[in-house]
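Example protein was shown:

_____
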Amino acid sequence: MKRFVPLLGASLLLSACAGRDAMPVTVSNAQDSTMNCQMIQAEMEANNNTLRELSSEKGLKVAQNVGAGVLGFFTFGLTWFAMDFKNAASTDSLALQNRNRYLGALAAQRC
């Protein structure tokens, strides 16, 4: 029991490191009114690159959660604290997709 308490405390402290918080972008920005076609296309391309990175991150998080879940059976559930349920990559992806839809409509009006 004396060894279990420090392990539990350490796992609780490490559980805060399990995932990042979402940082979704807004659909419209104040600078949108001054953007030309090239700027719109450049931002959409940057958003698409970020979406590819977030897709990779989602896959890695699934693998991490599966690994922590399976390992939890052998460590009496201690690694379950390392599982990430914040779903930050999906939240950020959805926000970027909405931003790209808005920029596409803006490009259709201006270009």
Remarks:
- The chain has a mean pLDDT of 85.
- The CA atoms of residues 37 and 77 lie 53 Å apart.
- Helices lie at 4-15, 37-74, 88-110.
